[in-house]
Design brief:
The chain is mainly alpha-helical and 60 residues long. The chain has three helices and no strands. It has a domain of 33 residues.
Length: 60
């Protein structure tokens, strides 16, 4: 399976950015992108979306 990627630009409030800086400083994550990816994985798990096809089917 080929995974296609698309670059996103997002604007975040300073408290979120400061929190992300702390997570990186503490060595829990390497960078902001890893934090966002992990947050999305956790969100999908919470809503029991286990695959991209599940997500696409729930939209239609």
């Amino acid at each position: 399976m080929i995974t296609r990627k698309k670059r996103l630009g997002i604007t975040m409030a300073n408290p979120y950015l400061k929190g992300m800086e702390l997570l990186i400083k503490d060595g829990l994550y390497e960078n902001q992108a890893e934090i966002v990816k992990d947050a999305l994985r956790r969100l999908f798990n919470h809503y029991e979306i286990h695959s991209i096809s599940d997500a696409c089917n729930s939209i239609n």
